[in-house]
Amino acid sequence: VLPPSLVDPFLRVKYLADRHTSTLVQLVLSQFIAQGHFERHLRQMRKRNEKRRAALLCALERELGATARVDGANAGLHVVVWLPHLRPADEPRIVERAARAGVGVYPLSHYYAATPAHAGLLLGYGSLDEPQIEAGVSALGAVLRAA
C-alpha cells in the first residue's frame, strides 16, 4: 500500500522495529484486502453498527429524555451522555450502581484535565446487540432516576 519510493525505507524500519510479525499472516491479510473481503467486512460492520447506534440513541431518548444530552452520536462506537442535573462528584456512585445493575459505563471526568461542569458518562456499544443495548439503557435509566 506504499508508494514505490517508500517501500525500501519502510522495510528497513520494520526490520529494526518488528522482527516478529509473521510473513504468512501479512501475505494472507494482503490477499484478503486485494480480493475485496476487507471492504465487504467494513460495509457489514457499518450496517451492524448503525443499527446498534440507532438502538442506543432511541433507548437513551426513551429512558433519559431531556435529563441527558448525547454527544458524539454520529461516529465511532461510543457516545458521551452528559447529565446536567448531576455533579461530576456523582459519577463514581453512578458507575458503581450501574455496574451492580450489570451495566458498564465510564465516568467522563476522568478524561478531563479540569473538572467538567456536569456529570457525564461514556457509553460503548460495539460489542452489544440491540436487545442488550435496550436492556442496558433501561437499567442505566433506573440507576439515574434513583440518583
Principal-axis shape: elongated
Count of alpha/pi helices? 5
What structural category do the secondary elements indicate?
A: alpha+beta
**Mean of residue pLDDT values:** 93
**Percentage beta strand:** 5-15%
Identify the quaternary structure here. Answer: single chain
Strand order of the largest sheet: 1-2-4-3
**Rg result:** 21 Å
Parts with pLDDT < 50 across at least 5 consecutive residues: none
Largest sheet descriptor:
4 strands, antiparallel
Helix content: 55-70%
Q: From N to C, what is the helix and strand string?
A: HHHEEHEEH
Straight-line N-to-C gap = 52 Å
Brief descriptors of the model:
single chain; 147 residues; alpha+beta; 5 helices
Task: Give a short overview.
The chain has 147 residues and is α+β, with helices and mostly antiparallel strands. It is built from five helices and four strands; from the N terminus they run αααββαββα. The longest helix has 28 residues, at 37-64.
Topology:
Elements: H1 4-17, H2 23-34, H3 37-64, E1 69-71, E2 78-83, H4 91-100, E3 106-107, E4 119-124, H5 130-146
Antiparallel strand pairs: 1-2, 2-4, 3-4
Helix pairs in contact: 3-5
Overview of the structural elements:
By secondary structure, the protein is α+β, with helices and mostly antiparallel strands. 55% of the residues lie in helices and 12% in strands. The protein is built from five helices and four strands; from the N terminus they run αααββαββα. It has helices at 4-17, 23-34, 37-64, 91-100, 130-146, and strands at residues 69-71, 78-83, 106-107, 119-124. A four-stranded antiparallel β-sheet has the order 1-2-4-3, covered by helices on one side. The protein is elongated, with a radius of gyration of 21 Å. The termini are far apart.
